Fold:
Amino acid sequence: MTVELHPSYLIGQHLSDYDFDLPLELIAQFPLADRSASRLLHVNDEVIEDLVFTDLKKLLKPGDLLVMNNTRVIKARLKGRKETGGAIEAMIERVTGEYTAISMLRASKKPKPGAKLIFEGADGRIFEAHVGGRQGEFFELTFDAPVLEVLEAIGKVPLPPYIEREAQAADEGRYQTVYAERPGAVAAPTAGLHFTRELLDDLRQMGVEENFVTLHVGAGTFQPVREEDLAKHEMHSEWFEISEDCAQAVNRAKREGRRVVAVGTTSLRALESAAEDDGTVAAGTMDTKLFIAPGYRFKVIDAMVTNFHLPKSTLVMLVAALVGKERIMQAYRHAVEEKYRFFSYGDACFLERTRSENPLEK
Structure:
């Protein structure tokens, strides 16, 4: 499979085409008490329909394959100090080995290679990390204990920048899907936050099949697009894995004419990145920089569950590719008028792929 870094369909598309007005009070700062009590906006060629999340049982059909991301959010935010005494904050981007990670570092003066960083937990435990080389804006860190052990002991849940409060104890459970299994993400695959075990049981009983990919969401997902000309934007890289069982389930569903429904943009990007031109999905691991925007031709996905995304973000471009740019902007205007809750702890959408031959115009 080939993933183009600057695909031709981006030519002539502009960042400002994906802007919309969003009142700040619609950005959800806390989750609902009940995961599945959120609202659900159903969008396809024919309807923009206000529902509740449990109505997913009416929208999904027996035989549909639901593909979810089973990554687990790690406590990726660390506060500490340099050996010289200056305060520093580390935001782990990716765990690269048992003792190593790459991280963003916030400090009055960035540390040099070889510098020692000291992190102390509330219980008095102290861990150290040495700064290695640079990978673009990220620093290579080597810890004196296993990275995941350090993060679990003294790290904080890395809530998104638009949630303007400190992480609380409740976030450790709520900013995690009920099926989270494989630690490595620094942001939740938030479309999955709405699912309860009871709802998943109900879907299984009605004949909906499920399977999982793993994509460890990086902090790059929150990086703004800085290029007005979208053809100049370079996507951040994310690691994912598709098991042999998942690949076979997807390929079987496609052969049998059953729908493949992605839960979240992460599941969608993983499957589309792993697909050959004929739609066959290959098992394995890879990094993806796939940039999906209107003009992209989907190989695998027929529908998706997703949250509402930031203006001028690559994620709003992705959902525009699925249902059409004009249609998604119409749906988002409706969501604002109806006061849906936006972003990670907000409400959800069920989007069905447009059948238009020109998704830029639909």
Remarks:
- The chain has a mean pLDDT of 94.
- The first strand starts at residue 39 and ends at 43.
- The helical segments are 56-59, 147-154, 171-174, 197-205, 244-255, 265-273, 314-323, 325-337.
